[in-house]
Amino acid sequence: MNKDQVKGTAEKVKGKANEIIGQVTGNTKQEVKGDIQQAAGQARKSLGDAKEAIKKS
């Protein structure tokens, strides 16, 4: 596991937390921020996955 995979996963978790807090409090702005964080985290994790795949081949 490389740093991009770890940081991407952490960003996804933070995004999910923001999304849930936004839903519970009715704060649409925070909910959208959470969605964006999750997407960014997934992109970074995917980059890390690709790096690992290249390293192993």
From TrEMBL:
Segments of this protein annotated with the region Disordered: 28-57
Residue span(s) of domain CsbD-like: 4-56
Residue stretches of biased makeup (Basic and acidic residues): 46-57
Pfam families: CsbD (PF05532)
InterPro entries with a match to the protein in the record: CsbD, YjbJ_sf
Family: Belongs to the UPF0337 (CsbD) family.
Protein's name according to its UniProt entry: CsbD-like domain-containing protein
Native species: Paraburkholderia caffeinitolerans
